[in-house]
Design goal:
4 strands, two-stranded antiparallel sheet, single chain, mainly alpha
Length: 279
C-alpha cells in the first residue's frame, strides 16, 4: 500500500475504477474523537482500506493473551500427556524409516569449521584457553584503571582520532596552601572583626571558602564536612564547563589601519579660497 501514499486513491476495483481514500481529520478532530468516543482506545487504522476499525471484545482479549504469552485457543492447557515413545526398549521399533546417512558419517561442514579454527589458532588470530591452575593456588588479583580508555585492535574512525588528538586536559585543582593546614601560622588565622566582616560578604566575594582554624595535633582535626559538596562542584565543573582549544592570531595593530595615499598624489584639488559669498 505504500505505492499509493502520494496518490488520492488506494487502488482499483474489478471495473478498473479508482478507490478513493477516505477523508482524514486533523489533530483537532482526533483529539475530539478521543474525548467523546468511548471506543477510541480499541480503534485501529487499517492501512489496506484506509479506514478506522473498532476491535471487538474477542479481538481485544486475543491481543491481551498474546501480549501476556498465554494460549489463544479455548482448549485446556493442562491436558494429560500421552507418552508414545517411552523409555522402555522394544524389540520392534515403531518407526520403520531407515536412519539417515548423516547420522553415521562425519559432517563435512563441521570438518570445514574445525579446519578454519585450527588454521586461526596456528596463525595466532585465536588464542586458546589458558591452562587451568590448581584450585589450591589463590588467584592473583587483577586491577585495572577504571577511567582509562579501553584499548581495542579495531581501527578508529577519523573523527575519533581527531578527538583524541585535539583533546584538552581538564585544569587541575588548586593545591592547598598554609591556610588549609591543621595548624596554620598566626597570620593566617582570622580575628573576630575579620570573621564578622566575612559573614557580611557574599560567598563570591570571600577570598577563602572556609575559616582557618588551628588544632594542636593532626588526630584532633575533625572531618571536613563540605567534602561531598566540593567533589560535586568539581564534577560539575568538569562536566558542564566546555574546554576548547582556541588558536590565537597574532596581528600587528598597524596592519589593521588602512594606508592613506599622500595628498600630492590626489591633486589637482582646490587649495586656495577664491570666492566668498555673503547672504
Amino acid at each position: 500500500m505504500e505505492w499509493y501514499n502520494d496518490y488520492p486513491h488506494l487502488g482499483y476495483d474489478w471495473e478498473g475504477k479508482k478507490i478513493l481514500k477516505p477523508a482524514k481529520g486533523d489533530e483537532l478532530d482526533r483529539f475530539l474523537k478521543r474525548m467523546d468516543d468511548p471506543e477510541f482506545w480499541k480503534t485501529v487504522h487499517d492501512k489496506s482500506t484506509g479506514q478506522d476499525v473498532v476491535l471487538s471484545n474477542e479481538d481485544v482479549d486475543l491481543i491481551m493473551r498474546l501480549q501476556q504469552g498465554k494460549l489463544t485457543g479455548q482448549g485446556d492447557p493442562y491436558e494429560p500427556y500421552e507418552d508414545v515413545f517411552s523409555g522402555e526398549v522394544m524389540k520392534t521399533s515403531l518407526v520403520t524409516r531407515p536412519p539417515h546417512k548423516r547420522s553415521f558419517i562425519p559432517s563435512l561442514l563441521e570438518k570445514e569449521k574445525v579446519g578454519k579454527l585450527v588454521h586461526a589458532i596456528k596463525m595466532g588470530w585465536i588464542k586458546p584457553w589458558k591452562p587451568q591452575t590448581d584450585s589450591t593456588e589463590e588467584p592473583e588479583p587483577q586491577f585495572y584503571a577504571l577511567w582509562e580508555k579501553e584499548k581495542t585492535e579495531d581501527p578508529q574512525s577519523k573523527s575519533a582520532r581527531a578527538r583524541e588528538r585535539n583533546a584538552t586536559k581538564a585544569p587541575k585543582m588548586k593545591l592547598p596552601g598554609h591556610a588549609e593546614s591543621y595548624n596554620p601560622p598566626p597570620e593566617y588565622l582570622l580575628t573576630d572583626e575579620e570573621k564578622k566582616k566575612r559573614l557580611e560578604q557574599d560567598p563570591e566575594d570571600r577570598t577563602l571558602d572556609f575559616v582557618p582554624r588551628s588544632y594542636p595535633s593532626m588526630r584532633l582535626t575533625p572531618s571536613w564536612m563540605p567534602l561531598a559538596r566540593e567533589r560535586l562542584d568539581r564534577c560539575l565543573d568538569l562536566y558542564l564547563c566546555p574546554r576548547k582549544t582556541v588558536l590565537k592570531v597574532h596581528v600587528n595593530p598597524e596592519d589593521l589601519i588602512p594606508k592613506l595615499p599622500k595628498p600630492k598624489d590626489l591633486m589637482p584639488f582646490p587649495t586656495v579660497q577664491a570666492i566668498v559669498s555673503f547672504v
